[in-house]
Each structure stands twice: as C-alpha cells, then as structure tokens.
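Next comes this protein:
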Amino acid sequence: MGSLKEMKEQYENIVIPEELAVRVQQEITKSRNKQVEKESHRYWFSKAVRSLGTAAAAVGIVFTLALNTMPAFAMEAAQLPVIGGLARVLTFRSYETEKDDIAVSVEIPSIEMIENDTGMQVDAINQEILDRCNQYAEEAIAWAEDYRTAFLETGGTLEEWAAHNIKIKVDYEIKQQDDAYLSFVVRGYENWSNANNESRYYNLDLHTGKEVTLKDLLGDDYEALANESIRQQIAEREQAGETFFAEAAGGFKGISDNTKFYINSNHNPVIVFDKYEIANGAAGEIEFEIGG
C-alpha cells in the first residue's frame, strides 16, 4: 500500500539541475538591489547565449532538458502571456505523479516583476502561493490514501478502486493582466470531494503594489452596490431559466469581507460563488460582474 511518506520522499529526492535551482531561488528570494539582480540575470543568460546564440533558445533548451531528465518535475516557459510590461505570471514549478491509482498534477505560479520601479514586493505573495499549493497537495494525497484504505478495508477491490480514477490537481488561471492590474486564481481540487476544493484569488494593483479590494474598485458603498447588482442579476437569470437557492435555504444573503472576486478586462470586479454555494452543483461556479 502506498503512503504519503513514500510519495513525499519521491518528490523530495528529485534532482534539480543547477541552472534551475538558481532560477527557483531567484523567484522566492529576489535581491532588492536592482543592479545586482540585473547583473545576475545578465551573467546567467550570457553563459547560455555563448553556445546557443540567443537567450530565447537558451531558455528553451534548459526547460526541455528539465522535462526530459526529471520525472515529475518541470520548469515551464510556455505560460508567459502578452501583457503591458510591469509584471507577469509564469509557471514556477509543475510536476505530475501517480501511485496507487491516485494521480497528482500540480502547477504552481509565481509573479515576476519586469519593471522593478513599481514598488511591488512579490516575494511574500510568491512564498504564500508556494506554501498553499504544497500544503494542499500533501493534504489531498493524505485524504486520498485514507479514502483508499477505507475503501479496500470495507470490501472494495483494487480494480474497483482504479475505476474511481482519483485525481488531485493544483493549478492557476490568469484572469486579467495589463499595466494597471494583475488578477489570477490559484485552485486546488479533487474529483471525488467538492468539500476539499479550494480557490484563492489574487488581485494586485501594479502601481501601488497593494492587493485590490472591492472598496477600491466600487467606492465606499461597495457592499450595497454589489448586493443590489447581484440580486438584480439573480432575478434576471431566474427569469431566463436558471435556478438559485432561496435566501432562507442558503441562497445569496449578501457579500462579506471574504467574498471572492477577480478583475476582468473592463477593470470591473467579478464576484465568484463556489459550486453549491448559492445554487445546485450542476451550475458550477457562479459569477456576477459588478459595474460596467
């Protein structure tokens, strides 16, 4: 029987090439000295450029080497969206593994500042994201192992367990990024238990370096404005055939300080309710754009 300890040991014993180890460390503990950082990057790329001719080719070769030589680990450069020029989100670490018919897929994002004069300090956010993703993956593996043990001990067979097709996934989705805002969500979810699914939205003002709130976007009356807009949209969508829980049955009662949202291309907040939160699970996540 597989164990969390064995999977963690397999993960921790992965050998990371020196070049990638340097890159990883830079993402979490960037120097505050701009000139030193520039010189460090220039030196790293110059070594690769001597043999490859261009920095783009160097990145491609290094990342291809990682994918080909390290099972369950990769540094990726593919997810670099076209943005305004202040910051970008890239895949900091990704890996896949499977044991005891429990499949695990993890993609951990990292914010990288392209223009360092903005005042944005992303090290703490990157560390928080890394810790959250690692913690979720470890806990989900432990839950899946416990589930497997209980299933087999109560008469289930290995073939029946395999048919469950258990999957654990950690990934992210970029919602909006330009010269003003960077908005993305990091998710952890399993395909056998919605109760353990998690999502964390990050909305950053690239000029102030602060995390954006609904009050920043909608003003002092943000709560009343958002509640009125959501109730109106629910009524319109119910007339169009959608179904929502009644307020007395756990439906929408109003936003709170913990209400999730992201910023869209119109720079409007889009409030997000989790699956089963205000409607049946078949509706999935439910979104309401406020303003615009």
The CA atoms of residues 14 and 226 lie 48 Å apart.
